[in-house]
Amino acid sequence: MSEINSTNTNTPENNKNRNSKIVYYVLIAIAAALLIVSIIMLCIKFFGGKEDFGDYKNPISSTSSTSSITLPQNPINFDEIKAVNPDVCAWIKIPGIDVIDYPILQSSIEADDNYYLDHDINGTVKKAGSIYIQKLNYSDFTDPNTLIYGHNMLNGTMFGQLKKFKNKDFFDQHRQIFIYTPDYILEYEIISAFVYDNRHILNSFNFNIENECQEFFDECVNPTSFTKQVLEGATLTTSDNIITLSTCTSNDNERYLVVGKLISRTRTAK
């Protein structure tokens, strides 16, 4: 029998050690490959070319149009005034006519549409009444035409000063009407002031039907009345929103109208 070579490495124990080393090196290689791939992906994400940055949106700049804009404060404290009367839906102010600076009311569902024709903000019967809109109009002034009513008081209160717009110089120098609601500041440009008949405008025209709406709008920019002032070049289409201030005259068959075209709607801070 020949002698066993003591240097023979092909033993079960040596084979086991060799296999373990192979597995170890394979795992190391896999781990190294995964690490390299991860590093490459991170580099692409954070140091990519223009194509990558083209799809990236700065979270601050992308929301700056809403979250970073400071909304204007509403000059009217509606919480306070609605505590006096919840029927207050807006406020009207005409710069240059200090006396026209009033709350606008809209009667409740249970009350008559013209309740505020002869009631003040406290519900007291008064000849002067209040400035008000009817329930045919939305209280947020989103209708194509919102009619605002007020008495032509001889002492100049309520809508008694609207007659000043009969004067061309006054008409030319006073172009703005502001309507404040609980959520918005609405700015209107006065485009015309004229005598009209005494028909109920909201019952006579369906402003949700284009041709009827345009019919009244055409009258506003080209009144048939002899007593009129119109902004040169003024136009109105059915995509516009207007307010029509209406007051009586010395003739029961007439009404004097001042028409304003909405030019801006600005949300206010809560």
Give short descriptive properties of this protein.
Sortase, Chain: A, 6 helices, elongated, nine-stranded mixed β-sheet, 2 domains, alpha+beta, 26% helix, 270 residues, single chain, disordered N terminus
Q: How would you portray this structure in words?
A:
This protein has helices at residues 12-47, 50-54, 78-84, 168-173, 201-204, 210-221; strands spanning 88-94, 97-105, 131-132, 145-149, 176-180, 184-197, 228-230, 242-248, 254-267. It has 270 residues and is an alpha+beta fold. The chain folds into two domains: 12-56; 78-267, Beta Barrel (Sortase, Chain: A), CATH 2.40.260.10. Strands 1, 2, 3, 4, 5, 6, 7, 8 and 9 form a nine-stranded mixed β-sheet that branches. The radius of gyration is 38 Å and the shape is elongated. Mean pLDDT is 84; it is low at 1-9 and 42-67.
